[in-house]
Amino acid sequence: MAEASWPSDETLSVAPAVSDALESYAAGVNAWLELVSAGGRGRGSPELLIADERSIDAWTPGDSLRIARSFLNGLRPESARKGTPSLSSAIIPSDRPKVLELFATDPQQRLDAWAIDGDRTAAGTPILAADISGSLSLPSEWYLADLQFSTGPAIGATMPGVPFVIVGRNTRVAWAFRSFPVPDEEAPRGPSPVQAAGFLTMLELFTRSADATDAIGVAADMLPKGMEALAIDRETVARWPKEEAVRALSFRDIRLAELEARQSIFSTEGAIGVQRDTVSTVARTLLPLMAKELWFVQSRDSIEGTDANDLRRELLDRLASWNGDMDRYSPEPLLFWTWLRALQQRILKDEFPAAQQLWTRPNPNFLYAVLSDRRGSAIWCDIRLSSPRETCEEQVRVALDDALGWLVDRYGRDPSTWTWGEEHRLDMQWSPISSRGLLTDLLSLQAPISGDPFTQFLTSFGVEEDRPFLVSAGSNFQAVMSISEAAGSYYITPAGQSGHPLSRFYDNLFPSWIQGEYLAMSTDLSLARGGASGISRLTPATSDNPRMSEGQSE
Q1: Burial class (CB in 10 A: 0-12, 13-18, 19+), 218
Q2: Strand partners, 430
Q3: Overall pTM surpassing 0.85 (yes/no)
Q4: In whole angstroms, what is the distance from residue 110 CA to residue 476 CA?
Q5: What is the pLDDT of residue 87?
Q6: Which is it for strands 425-430 and 445-448: parallel, antiparallel or unpaired?
Q7: Surface-to-core class of residue 22, CB atoms within 10 Å of its CB (0-12 exposed, 13-18 middle, 19+ buried)
Q8: Cα–Cα dist 351/349, whole Å
Q9: What are the angstrom distances between the C-alpha of 93 and each of 88, 89, 118, 354, 493?
Q10: Does CATH number 3.60.20.10 belong to domain 16-277+470-524?
Q11: pLDDT digits over 299-330, tens only?
């Protein structure tokens, strides 16, 4: 995270409350590092066995600001983060129409949120749902915390390294964010140190907000570019900017609108159901365009064997009755995405033979433009190097046979044994040591998982040629909050609260996350104490009490 251009802490103007929190946080980190170094208390942690803890630099408030800046930078598209120019129409052959979606790059992480007014909820108070997507790694990038301040509690998700709640609530108001791409020309250098400091100041003020209007007033002054803030209290849903940013609807937006319209009254359980939805609008939109001419077309026999037509017919029948649910135990999602991937390769490989990522990673927005012939985009289906002019119908048919050949070679000829989860597997790697090896494999988590990059429960695809649907990123924090005792607030992260692999809290939340079982959290500290298995007290060091003793942990 270190950056040579980072200014010294003294050059930044930070509110006293924020400065005090950052300094106290740094003092706590450093006190523990001293104890680890003096008594070897942390030697069981694998990264400290590999890298001597004495080589770890002391934590400073500037490090927390760097974490905040890195987080804000991760919300920008990949091309903007790396400082490289976006691919432009200059590399598109002159006989091909420009399709902007072809070169779009995803941000490293994304913030999503939506709110329901109280007149549409069972408890009569608004509901705020929040989702953060990003790397799925161990330890988790998000940490659930109940922070008790002199001004009152704040609960929700924090980032390790930042002593404030990013998405969460106090006793009176809940807040969350949406992120959207900012054009490179509007933010060419990314977030500045001053913006990172302002972001933390905004979070600190949120913890003391009296109502949703108060919180949004803070956001109006301090919200970073490329973000929208949503806040609720017992009566109000507020947002800043007051008008939502104008942007094209995504496949996820379309599905969310369908789910919102389907229910007249929402409960927190209903909101959780929306967040965990795995029906893909991509499949429901593209499959009719792909298969419309195939129901009565014979196979081109790219699959060896006399039963090629029967297999093809069986799978087309399966897709015809499929609702687009990316269920990990079903074969239809595997067939659909393998087919889509093969189609994109057929369409783009001749134009971009060296840009492998363009034709190996499915891009539904581009394919929708081509298959619907938007502004003449169907010409992309023609192979430039061949004499005949290929149509999209021909490319779709051949791509289906390509996909079936790949699946038969991999799993045999019985589709009832194929499952989406066999290819669409979560690979949550232990991340403190970046190199892949036996230790990393032992401490990582793998599991079949539902969803796709465009479902409400988001799971991104990887880049490995042999494992194209491997999942290493996706929804890594979800929350449903209401300022109501009857409705409650619920949160979930994919791993555990501990970064130590030998702790029972290292991965204890993983089964709940897979099954969509959220944790209830309350701002009432007595409820937490009542359900606690123990209490650990960290006492600030003083001249009379220079070190923590064993007796101070119960």
Answers
A1: buried
A2: 138
A3: yes
A4: 10
A5: 47
A6: antiparallel
A7: buried
A8: 6
A9: 11, 8, 53, 14, 45
A10: yes
A11: 454 555 557 788 888 999 999 999 999 999 99
pLDDT tens-place string over residues 195-238: 999 999 999 999 999 999 999 999 999 999 889 999 999 999 99
Q: Residue 380 pLDDT more than 50?
A: yes
- The count of other CB atoms within 10 Å of the CB of residue 267 is 18
420, HSE (Cβ side, Cα atoms, 13 Å): 22
d(C-alpha 513, C-alpha 463), whole Å:
24
Amino acid at 424: H
Q: Give the SS3 label for residue 527.
A: helix
Tell me the C-alpha distance between 126 and 386, whole Å: 59
How far is the C-alpha of 204 from the C-alpha of 215, rounded, in Å?
11
What distance in Å separates the CA atoms of residue 541 and residue 252, rounded to the nearest whole number?
50
Those residues with Cβ within 8 angstroms of residue 263's Cβ, 6 or more apart along the chain or in another chain = 270
| Closest CA relative to residue 159, chosen from 134, 182, 189 | 134
Where in the chain are the domains?
16-277+470-524, 281-323+331-418
Distance CA 280, CA 514 (A): 18
Closest of 230, 199, 241, 220 to residue 75, by C-alpha:
199
